[in-house]
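tool_call predict_complex ligand=aspartic acid
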Amino acid sequence: MKKVVKFGGSSLASAEQFKKVGKIIRADASRKFVVPSAPGKRFSGDTKVTDMLYSCYGAAIREKKFADQLQEIRGRYQEIIDGLGLDFSLDQDFEKIRENFGKKIGRDYAASRGEYLNGKIMAAYLGYEFIDAADVIRFGEDGSFDEETTNQLLAKRLEDSKGAVIPGFYGAKADGTIVTFSRGGSDVSGSLVALAVGADLYENWTDVSGFLIADPRIVKNPRSIETITYKELRELSYMGASVLHEDAIFPVRKAGIPINIRNTNAPEDKGTLIVEGTCRQPKYTITGIAGTDGFASITIEKAMMNSEIGFCRKVLQVFEEHDISIEHMPSGIDTMTIFVHKDEFEEKEQQVLSAIHKTVKPDHIELESDLALIAVVGRGMRATRGTAGRIFSALAHAHINVKMIDQGSSELNIIIGVRHDDFKNAIRALYEIFVVTQI
Ligand code: ADP
Ligand code: ASP
Ligand code: MG
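tool_result ok
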């Protein structure tokens, strides 16, 4: 049995947290490959080391003094080293970092030091070997991730390892230039290691007892999901459930390696198992609810648009030509609505509108901003009638106006558009009807 274990920032924010992590790893001899994040928040209002590094490097490139900020970061690590009673020094590493910041070596390099240093401490604490991710996670010349080379490098390097720590979040180009994944990317690193070593399980340890049915910052004490499929998870992560980086499922999915989301602060909880497929019926009709804010919609009206061949294509082409991605596209007989990300659309708004006028000569175009999209996801919806009806009734009850509802043909999810101000209440109302009262 081989397990890859990834620990998130809050699981490694202090010596206390490191001790919990050490206990978890030592409790199971198959936990041989460890992927740590940088130290996260120790308490609410605290700053993640990654953010401190971005800010410190920002000062360095503006030719401002950055020594104090770097010293503060150093303090975070020293506190951990001292708290663990390790005889271990990061003097040389910090000297090198100071030098490289002075040379303005790169923003990604700066951010990556968070995981790099934490990895070194973790390796010393566990007595595992430290493997710099720059040697085993490869990016191409253009900065895009090189999946094949990474898999070969990782598999070869870890082949005979008895226990290794590979810091998350970054890798390097062949010439050594450091490149990071997007924020939260240590989840992706863990998944890559799991694929390369042919792990039986990828454990992702965080600060919640698994994937919760709804965002705990919106719904109070939501229940956790026992088993979820990769597909359901993809829908939820894409729509903003931020527990796991949205790209983290691809490497393990390929090899059918399950992911287990666990809680470092409650290791006895079973957490959530993410699998390819399952015969287990979910407890509720829905598996989870997630949502994102910050959308705008463009509704195009034209009498008889349905009989005009090529109408949709022409409209979509306008968006393509302006490099705007489309999120959803519900339509009626004489109307079609396009949901886009507000930030992406805003700056090109007038050009897009005039291009639509020119190409399809609509009767009317209506814009609406400050919209949110909510995804209600669940494999159980296929076998249940009346889900959309229950959604409407729950939202009507909460006096929420539904702007759009769109059911994917997979019957795995229903997307609902609501106004920004109704966003949180809508999620609470949906949780209430599907999970709490189940009526
Ligand atoms: P880590 O630092 O361990 O990578 P993250 O902060 O990236 O952890 O992810 C865990 C956080 O995700 C939780 O603390 C919680 O606030 C948030 N979250 C958002 N949606 C959900 C959800 N559906 N289930 C669980 N946690 C969620
Ligand atoms: N430390 C990085 C971040 O804050 C990566 C991660 O935590 O996964 O985004
Ligand atoms: Mg994370």
